[in-house]
Amino acid sequence: MKLLTLNFLTCAIKTCKTNSASFPLHPRDAELEIVEADVNLPFLKNILPRLMWDELRGICTELGLPELPATPPTPADLIQPSSSTPETTDAAPIAEADEEPSQTAKDLHRVLLETCIQEGKLVCGACEHEYAVKEGVANFLLPGHLV
């Protein structure tokens, strides 16, 4: 389960729906795995405004991952500045495919898309209910008395 997924999950118990402490779910006893993948700049630029940055920073801290900056990067921060200037003034703008990811983009990609929780638990901050994660899949089925 990629860490990006935690940005969209909340506790499934009905009484937690209105409690702000039910988001985000907190990883406990997590075994992490890094799954290498190519950096996808267009995806990172599109997901950036949807990230709950403070919560993501908290999850990284809980997992012992490198600390993220206090403020979210802008899409421009994700692109490596070009060291060469265009030879002609009427040159077409650089296509997205030609953009090189900055170190910020690589770090964000590493945290969101390459870092996966393979085993462990996700714990609600409101009710302390634990959702098991096995083989990278979280089990959100609730026992009958909690539905």
Structural features:
single chain; 147 residues; alpha+beta; N-terminal domain of TfIIb; 4-stranded antiparallel sheet; 3 helices; 17% strand; protein heterodimerization activity; Trm112
Total discrete domains: 1
**Roughly what is the average pLDDT, rounded to an integer?**
89
Name of the CATH architecture: Single Sheet
Biggest β-sheet: count, sense, barrel? 4 strands, antiparallel
Query: Level of helix content?
Result: 10-25%
- The CATH class, by name, is Mainly Beta
The first-to-last residue Cα distance is: 24 Å
Radius of gyration: 19 Å
- Structural class given helices, strands, pairing? alpha+beta
Q: How many H/I helical runs?
A: 3
Uncertain stretches: none
Please name the CATH topology: N-terminal domain of TfIIb
Strand order of the largest sheet: 1-2-3-4
Shape: elongated
What is the strand tally? 4
Beta-strand share of residues? 15-25%
Biased composition (Low complexity): 85-95
Family: Belongs to the TRM112 family.
GO biological process, one term: tRNA methylation
GO molecular function: protein heterodimerization activity
Describe this structure in words.
By secondary structure, the protein is of the alpha+beta class. It has one domain (3-80, 99-142): N-terminal domain of TfIIb (Single Sheet), CATH 2.20.25.10. Helix content is 20%, strand content 17%. The chain contains 3 helices and 4 strands. It has helices at 41-47, 53-63, 103-114; strands spanning 26-34, 115-123, 130-134, 137-138. It has a 4-stranded antiparallel beta sheet. The chain is elongated and about 60 Å long. GO terms for molecular function: protein heterodimerization activity. This is Trm112p-domain-containing protein. InterPro entries: Trm112, Trm112-like. Belongs to the TRM112 family.
